[in-house]
Automatic annotation (TrEMBL), chains A, B:
CDD domains: HTH_LacI, PBP1_CcpA. This is Catabolite control protein A. The gene is ccpA. Residues 3-57 form the HTH lacI-type domain. Global transcriptional regulator of carbon catabolite repression (CCR) and carbon catabolite activation (CCA), which ensures optimal energy usage under diverse conditions. It comes from Paenibacillus psychroresistens. InterPro entries: CcpA, HTH_LacI, LacI/GalR-like_sensor, Lambda_DNA-bd_dom_sf, Peripla_BP_I. The lineage of its organism: Bacteria, Bacillati, Bacillota, Bacilli, Bacillales. The keyword DNA-binding applies.
Length: 335, 335
DNA sequence: CTGTTAGCGCGTTCAT
DNA sequence: ATGAACGCGCTAACAG
């Protein structure tokens, strides 16, 4: 039924080793022989079996990607970066959603390892001891992607979330704002939640502005929770003159709430956030936000992984990509 | 180095066949033996090699997914549906972006087939003869996902794009609009472009409204092209009283352009579109749009594929999922 | 430059 | 219920 390397060999009148050589572009084949083999391949419609090749060579040219949720635009962008670079180096990607749930993460790591991936890209919640254990149970290279690792034991590429938040809030402060509300993500989330909150706090502290609980609301990254938080802020006696939101979506929720209350952005209240998703340039006013290079995070981590898989010597295994404030129209000087 | 089934056999004092049986849940093993084997597995940290298993069993429990662009929210949603169901049936997903480019599509189909995937989910541009040829070159089941196939030769699941557009435009007409502009996608795209335009046309024709070229602009699905198209419409002598946009993004571009011209949505101009992306509920006014069940398209096509891979008899192989108009705030009765 | 020969790790008869 | 032996399709020495 299926045509194998052996059939080709017979058809071309050579040995299977020779067929293997031409298929794998080994230079040690006479051009004429090569031609004969190619013709036989063509005639028989031979297609190499990558599984057999994987078993014999102990390489699958496949890498596993653990991702929280591919339907989340942020991660999808990372995934595209990963796939583009993988493709460039002739790797394929096995994609697994794990929703930042530890059990699911450990589980997919194991099935990925069973599938003999040549490398692993991990994007998830916190990296626990259990994760490390699962990683160490095999010798395939791993790189953490947009994921923090307290133990700092594994190669990783990410941005500096704390600094990103710090910079955003500092922009507000440099515009004269001193009454700044924060719409945070859950503080349990080390990167998008806790770190950004820390940046907010540090920016205030360095400016000598007291951090008060009433100016902090915790949301769930989504539009609706931005609305909810903003409704709260608007009813405050000392209403903030500026809002720092941990995500664009929450920022947009805040903007709409402000506008619905017949206040203006940025004239009455300024808004800044972090993400720079497509939506940031699809609101009125255009949203000032700090851009995270998500595509690049994916691309760079995949590139790092190729080096690791290639057993190249990589000195720096902790890569922090730069972020950038995209100044648009949602921040103004305080009145 | 790596511990194999053979090592486990020795450690447990049984044959490798027995180990294979317990690993694969074959009932023909004495409980006591099973226990011994499990203990040996635990002790040695044995992890089955899926590649070797794939070679021996001719099954990889892996399916290939060809997708236009995972960083596009619409497709990412489909992908999540696919992965969830795949996961449920213990399949893994190899994900390949092909950007709707024919050559790239054919190329990834072939590498996926080389990897011996048990099935293929294809999401792309048009399905040409060359695609069919590539599909037919192997006997693995294929299902088309959100992709039209003129030849109608391959199992597929999609929505009725023409009808979706028709319904949207009809809602406009039933609100008294007779001067309706369309912001279309490229007409070369059979589903999102051409079919939606056809639906627009048919709705007008059935209402006895002439279809005039001046009321049709072709965009590229994006926000910016919605802006551009709307600028054109606004300067028209007989300005449309309603706009049908082929995507939410273009619709939002139109809305903002209308508002920037100091006109109101929907009081002055109504806007409707199709997609029901998250953004539809993140604009003011909230966007009325027809919802496509993208997650379901992914889930249903993956489910169909599992049946096909399982050699179950499936009668209907052309599944059309229902769409639904989500009425929000961007459409009003004509003044 | 080419062919021979072993495995790679596992599923699967076929015996027992 | 268990074991022996073969083969899945290919790569990788090694020999010539």
């Amino acid at each position: 039924m299926t045509v194998t390397i052996y059939d080709v060999a017979r058809e071309a009148g050579v040995s299977m080793a020779t067929v293997s050589r031409v298929v794998n572009n080994n230079p040690n084949v006479k051009p004429q022989t090569r031609k004969k083999v190619f013709e036989a391949i063509e005639r028989l419609g031979y297609r190499p079996n990558a599984v057999a090749r994987g078993l014999a060579s102990k390489k699958t040219t496949t890498v596993g990607v653990v991702i929280p949720d591919i339907s989340n635009a942020i991660f999808a962008e990372v995934a595209r970066g990963i796939e583009d670079i993988a493709n460039m180096y002739r790797y394929n990607i096995i994609l697994c959603n794990a929703d930042k749930k530890k059990d699911k993460e450990i589980s997919v790591i194991n099935t990925l390892l069973e599938k003999q991936v040549d490398g692993l890209l991990f994007m998830g919640g916190t990296v626990t001891q259990e994760h490390i254990l699962a990683f160490k149970s095999s010798s395939v290279p791993i790189v953490l992607c947009a994921t923090t690792d307290d133990n700092n034991a594994i190669p990783a590429v990410d941005i500096d979330h704390e600094k990103a938040a710090f910079d955003a809030v500092q922009l507000l402060i440099s515009n004269g704002h001193r009454n700044i509300g924060m719409i945070s993500g859950t503080l349990q989330d080390p990167a998008n939640g806790y770190a950004r909150f820390q940046g907010y706090k540090r920016a205030l502290e360095e400016a000598g502005i007291p951090v008060i609980d009433d100016h902090i609301r915790v949301g769930n990254y989504r539009y609706e929770s931005g609305i909810e938080a903003m409704k709260y802020f608007i009813n405050l006696a000392d209403k903030p003159t500026a809002i720092f939101a941990a995500t664009d979506e929450m920022a947009i929720g805040a903007i709409h709430t402000i506008q619905d209350a017949n206040l203006r952005v940025p004239d009455d209240i300024s808004v800044i956030s972090v993400d720079n998703s497509r939506m940031a340039s699809m609101v009125r006013p255009l949203l000032t936000t700090v851009a995270q290079p998500m595509y690049d995070i994916g691309a760079v981590s995949m590139r790092l992984l190729t080096k690791l898989m290639n057993k190249e010597n990589v000195e720096v295994t902790k890569i922090v990509l730069p972020h950038e404030i995209i100044v648009r129209k949602s921040v103004a000087h305080v009145k």
